[in-house]
Amino acid sequence: MFHPITAFIALRYLSTRRKNRFANLVSLVSILGIGLGVTVLIIVSSVMNGFEKEVGRHILGMTSHAIMFRQGSTVGNWRKLLTQIESEPDVTAVAPFIRAGAMLSHKGNVHGVSIEGIDTEAEHAVSSLLDQIEPAEVALLTRQPNNILLGQSLAENLEVATGETITLIAPPQNSKDWVGMPRYIPLTVIGTFSVGMHEFDAGFALLSIQDATRIFDFNDTVSGIRVRFFDSRIAPKRAMAISNSLDNGIVSINWTQYHRNFFHALKSQKRIMFIILSLIVAIAAFNIAASMFMIVREKDRDIAVLRTLGLSRHAVMLIFLIHGIVIGVAGTVFGIIVGAWGANQADRVVAAVERWFEISLIKPDVYYINYLPADVRLTDIVLIASVTFIICVIATIYPAWQAACTAPAAALRYE
């Protein structure tokens, strides 16, 4: 049973000087080790949360919550379908789009790109893509034919500036097998955009939906319809329900499926890193056990006196359990404070290292974004603190049990 005297004695053992200074050092190293483990766990978890959040935000910024399309074919009679989808509950906006593959050429530089033909008036409602572009440039996209907007990295790779002309190499019309001669269409670059994701900035270009229909011979059909719901979290369920209610073999894909492998890999890496980095805490917990054994050996006579005065074995065990738990809690609190601060400063530290050593640690062509995001979540902190606490308790049990098993007669034999 817990009694104030057990806590008093445990805290007294922590605050008094010991004959064995090495035990003091091991206890301090244990606190720092646990703090280091908790700090690293919080920073790594926060950075992975940040990656997941930022990539999801950029994906939603470039596209809608869901897309309705006909697999292997274009969507005809799309205006009627647009009205039908827009009337569904939870749907806030819809927009048609055309997507096609082509090549862009300028000054001998040739790059394959994904061309999107968009309705600029409807696109504003389903995504934030056009928010990254100057309104005047968006207006020029539909005001004159054969105007194009390029991703910033794509424009740099093509060595093209605003106002210059590039050549779009399109597949031959009415030729599904690409046997005919390709068509060369001159287009005027009216601007560039950057959304912070290399995948889009280096391989994405925008046309008006009218130009895309004419250039790629869509004949009053579209590639699909973008759909926006009032809440992105309901998109998977509602998109599937809507597509099932539509005729003509319409299927759906929602925003969580656009980069499914990436998100799954990120979650798996987070779990694996949590397990691996928890070993730092486990090693520090072994230091707690080592220091506890030293303290038990040093305090065996005190334990014997307490036992002869009537203190039960359970109370003796509780004294040393509290002693070890206090060390673990001190390290955990220290780690939480430093970890939360470190996670918020991680991007600045990485930017400073890149500037000092002139290297690139966050490659946008690999990690989708060019900065280090962090999202500190209370649930992760609680989980890390709970796991650390359990590990510290487990590490303390055996030394505390050894203390409880101390025989008073044997300890005081030569006194």
Essential attributes:
415 residues; alpha+beta; 15 helices; 9 strands; 17% strand
Summarize the model shown.
It is built from 15 helices and nine strands.
- The backbone outline, from C-alpha atoms, is elongated
Gyration radius (Cα, Å) is 32 Å
What is the percentage of strand-forming residues? 15-25%
Compute the separation of the termini in Å. 30 Å
Report the sheet with the most strands, covering strand number, pairing sense and barrel closure.
6 strands, mixed, barrel
| Averaged pLDDT | 85
The H-and-E topology, N to C, reads as HHEHEEHHEHEEHEHEHEHHHHHH
Taking pLDDT < 50 over at least 5 consecutive residues as the criterion, the unreliable ranges are: none
Quick one: how many beta strands?
A: 9
Provide the spatial order of strands within the biggest beta sheet: 2-3-7-4-6-5
**Overall helicity:** 55-70%
What structural class results from the helix and strand content?
Answer: alpha+beta
Instruction: Determine the number of helices (DSSP H or I, runs of at least 4 residues).
Output: 15
Oligomer: single chain
